[in-house]
Amino acid sequence: MFQDLRLGLRMILKNSGFSAVVVMTLALGIGANVALFSVVNSVLLNPLPFPQPDQLVTLAQSKPNFDMGAIPYPNFQDLQRENQTFSAMAISRGSGFSLIGAGEAERVSARQVSADFFSVLDLKPVRGRTFSSGEDEPGAGPVVVISAELWQRKFGAAEDIVSRSLTLDDKSYAIIGVIPADFGLFRGTDVYVPIGQWNNPALKRRGAALGLHGIGRLKPGVTIEQAQADLSGVMARLATIYPETNRGNGAKVSSLKERMIGGIGSTLWLLLGAVGFVLLIACVNVSNLLLARSTGRTREFAIRAALGAGRWRLFRQSLIESTLLAVTGGGLGLLLAGWGTTAAVALLPTTLPRASEIRLDSRVLIFALAISLLTGILAGLVPAVRTSRAYLSETLKEGGRGASSARGRAQGVLVAVEMGLALVLLIGAGLMIRSLSALWKVDPGFRPDNVLTFGLSLSPSTRKANPDAIRADLRQLNDQLRATPGVQSVSFTAGGIPLQGADDLVFWIEGQPKPASGSEMNSAWVYRVEPGYLAAMGIELKQGRFFTDQDTEKSQPVVVIDEVFAQKYFGNANPIGRRIHQGDEDVETQEIVGVVRHVKQWSLDADERQTLQAQLYEPFRQFPDDAMPGLAAGVLVFVRYQGAAAPFDSIRRVVQDQNKQNVVSRPQTMNEVIAGSLAPQRFSMILLESFALVALLLASLGLYGVISYLVGRRTHELGIRMALGAQRKDVLRLIVGDGMKMALAGVALGLVAAFVLTRLLAKMLYGVSATDPATFTAIALLLTLVALLACFVPARRATKVNPLVALRYE
Q1: Cα separation of 28 and 34, whole Å?
Q2: CA distance 360 to 337
Q3: Does residue 562 register a pLDDT over 60?
Q4: Residue 317 to residue 277: CA distance in whole angstroms
Q5: Whether the Cβ atoms of residue 245 and residue 238 lie closer than 8 Å to each other
Q6: Which of 214, 491, 607, 683 could pair with 532 in a Cys bridge, judged by C-beta atoms 3.0 to 4.6 Å apart?
Q7: Which residues of 776-806 are buried (b: 16+ CB within 10 A; e: fewer)?
Q8: Which contiguous run of DSSP H or E holds residue 771?
Q9: Which of 363-372, 389-398, 703-712 has the lowest mean pLDDT?
Q10: Is a pLDDT exceeding 80 seen at residue 659?
Q11: Where are the alpha helices (DSSP H) in 41-131?
Q12: Mind giving me the DSSP string for 327-385?
């Protein structure tokens, strides 16, 4: 074996040009597989970076019309107190603050968490400590835990950080700890504060979920099913005690890892399978190269056999050489994978879980070694079998041309296989392109062009003013923004952004029996907007009117509904003038004054499949007095502008001219919002396109190489044909015909395989069938044309063979 290894290395170095082509081909295939496997490994295979990660679960409250929902804080406290299967339980919600006094005022992302949040995860801070139970109570001293990123950015990673403070919304918080930089549960969060100190009366209401979601750590040996049964029992008791708010509600326990991964797992496995096709094509290409090279060594191996080398020894020698080439290619591929992994992370959608954990680790290195060895065996198997057959008398007599027809047939089969594999990838990429194109053409219900949205936080001093003063400041700012050059219309909003997120409310229609509990009421998405919202978003008014400047806190409460709401709850009857009650009995009934077009909220491709679709609009100016400080702390602004670029700098100047401590944050256009919602599909399409293009290149080069090899082997024959009267067009037709037989066989094979395999893409497609005839036909024709070109170049060269030279050949 050692002798074979030495000989293999010598042959690789001796044929450096050939070896370089093989190594680069394999490096491309192996590198692509290793890069994508590193993503799969980090996202799907590696455990979460917490102690005993299998014990971590998510907690949610289920409703009759929701699989998952937020948990009201009093219900969470009862679950925490009465459960028998959890060692710890915590809750959190997303929030934000204006950070003042540490440079320019800015909006920071925050999470309000219960005291046990970090202990549930068993997360150790890099500086200081986390919250204690007493700090999660009303009246406790304000404390904050910050992220390592904020520690570095605002404090230069100062060692005395735990002795400093932060001013958040004009309130000083003592910094007690710093969270590690690799904490990936809530990416982008800057600060963590105790939720028990949140001065919001709704926190104590069982009917107010407020976006609170829980996590928990199971006791050792407890299964998710046991925990589910335990919490369901607690919720059943709460439904008996508090039927008005809890009847019909349940609990949902899920693996934290599964909830983080979501539906991305099947997509990543599918893409890993697709990139495996690229490696198979590379293997086939290398097999063809090794077969062609073995022709030049037939006489060598025949002499070895004549001198006593057994068939197994010849087979082993050939296989060792191919494996050495593959391992070398694997080493280079590993270097390419390091670059490819970085590129893949840059392409990954921002919503991909655990993206910050993607890296090359020991499992990836083992995968790279294993796939290199397997590739070497697969690529070298056919050439090794052919080489080990010692055609002694024929080879020594014919000067090395023995068994050439058998090799030609083997190479033809390999070409057909790689053409088929390439066709499968090309059809998959074609289907993804058509699907994404169809998604871009979906009407979202609004006109996204020239619409800018951003967050606005008024100064802390403004928030302390009385509600009428806050309303006056908001109206003044609205007027100033509308007067900004380039701005056509403006609306302040609360509740969410289409395709990103929104609040829901429960209601019942006046004149119909009141439901017995909030969980049995109807639900709708709610958007709280100003009169300029329809103009800013480009939403069509279907019936009645929209809000006007007269719809204020002092006027009759009104609402506008969308066409889905109208159809679902009123059918063909006229909804204008009807009234609805919100779940809270203290809220005055609201009159329906208009109907607008439905806008996509869940996604462009899945909105119609969701249970909750109905949408309701409330006047922003009819917010009650106690809600005004919260609005001043953070609202969304929609602006429709003229021209090619959004006048964001002018808008920010207007906002800060009113008050230097006003903060504008997270600007994005609605086209960017739509693009973000399509990020997973775009990511899959880009990767499939890349794999398909590489496969097409390898397959066409493989066909070109085989035809060139066969032309070289048939030089003597072509000379005789031309000497006997064959015309150049006859030779061209002969060579191209032989090549196209291989190519068309591959196309036929690929069409059959694609018809079966593309069904795996069905859930990722929109507006196109997984077996779309137009895509299959177009891609088959494209591959056929590429194959024709690959055959034509060597065939044309064959027509220039001089018969006299060819007859003297050998």
Answers
A1: 10
A2: 8
A3: yes
A4: 27
A5: no
A6: 491
A7: beebbeebbebbeebbbebbeebbebeeeeb
A8: none
A9: 389-398
A10: yes
A11: 73-82, 117-121
A12: HHHHHHHHHHHHHHHHHHHHHS-TT-TTGGG----HHHHHHHHHHHHHHHHHHHHHHHH
Tokens linked to 103: 């440079």
Q: Which two tokens stand for residue 562?
A: 């969308």
Burial 671-706 (b: 16+ CB within 10 A, else e): eebbebbbebbbbbbebbbbbbebbbebbbbbbbbb
Q: H-helix or E-strand containing 469?
A: helix 467-482
Residues 6 or more apart whose Cβ sits within 8 Å of residue 690: none
The 3-class SS string of 12-30 reads HHHCHHHHHHHHHHHHHHH
User: Any idea what the Cα angle at residue 613 is, between residues 609 and 614, rounded to 5°?
Assistant: 155
pLDDT of residue 701: 81
- Reported as type and span, the H/E element at residue 110 is strand 106-113
Counts for the chain of helices (H) and strands (E), in that order: 26, 22
Listed residue (526, 486, 510) closest to 620, CA to CA? 526
Residue located via tokens 């391992």: 327
| Cα 807 to the center of its chain, rounded Å | 62
CA atoms of 276 and 253, how far apart (whole Å)? 36
Buried-exposed string 161-171: b where 16+ CB fall within 10 A, e elsewhere = beeeebbbbbe
- For 336-345, write each residue's pLDDT tens digit: 888 877 776 6
Q: How far is CA 96 from CA 155, 191, 316, 550, 557, in A?
A: 19, 9, 66, 31, 29
Task: Report residue 388's pLDDT band, with 50, 70 and 90 as the boundaries.
Answer: low
Q: What is the pLDDT of residue 175?
A: 94
User: In the numeric block, which tokens belong to residue 606?
Assistant: 């899945």
757 within 8 A of 280, measured Cβ to Cβ: no
For residue 393 the two structure tokens come to 């008398």
63: Cβ contacts below 8 Å, ≥ 6 apart:
69, 248, 249, 250, 519, 523
Reported as a single tens digit per residue, the pLDDT across 226-268 is: 999 999 999 999 988 988 788 888 889 999 988 888 778 888 8
- DSSP letter at 87 equals E
Give the Å distances, CA to CA, from 614 to 502, 597, 632.
12, 11, 28
User: Which element (helix H / strand E) includes 519?
Assistant: none
Q: Which of 402, 325, 309 is nearest to 15 (CA)?
A: 325
Instruction: Indicate yes or no: pTM above 0.90.
Output: no
Q: Is the pLDDT assigned to residue 328 strictly greater than 70?
A: yes
Cβ count near 259 (within 10 Å) = 17
Contact (Cβ atoms closer than 8 angstroms) between residue 575 and residue 595: yes
User: Is pLDDT above 90 for 521?
Assistant: no
Q: In whole angstroms, give the CA distance from residue 586 to residue 375.
A: 71
Pairing of strands 171-179, 165-168: antiparallel
Residue located via tokens 């009159």: 591
